[in-house]
Specification:
InterPro entries: DUF3817_TM. Pfam families: DUF3817 (PF12823). This protein is mostly helical. The protein has one domain (about 5-95). About 75% of the residues lie in helices and about 0% in strands. The chain has helices at about 10-35, 40-65, 70-80, 85-95. It is elongated and about 45 Å long.
Length: about 100
């Protein structure tokens, strides 16, 4: 884990994983709780954390992409991955591994 966090791309991969998990928690846990069981509290809490992770992920994709001189297509796919369920996991395997 230490090696993974030692560079910017590794930090992007870790953040992408965490952001992806938070997105799945919203979709499959907190949204059903909110709409089926009338329990909005978890959705608010996880939603706020996910929002911060989402913004951080987008900024980091742009930063890493510009620093590593990625094509705008690759940067765009990395950003698009953040709004598709399981997308950040795909991006980790297909885009962010060296």
């Amino acid at each position: 884990m230490q090696k993974l966090l030692s560079n910017q791309l590794g930090r992007l991969r870790v953040l992408g994983f965490i952001e992806g998990v938070s997105f799945l928690l919203i979709l499959f846990v907190t949204m059903p709780l909110k709409y089926w069981y009338d329990t909005p509290g978890p959705n608010k809490a996880i939603g706020m954390v996910h929002g911060l992770l989402f913004i951080s992920y987008c900024f980091l994709v742009l930063n890493v992409g510009i620093d590593r001189k990625w094509s705008w297509q690759k940067i765009g796919l990395g950003l698009l991955a953040s709004i598709v369920p399981f997308g950040t996991f795909w991006a980790d395997v297909k885009l962010f591994r060296e």
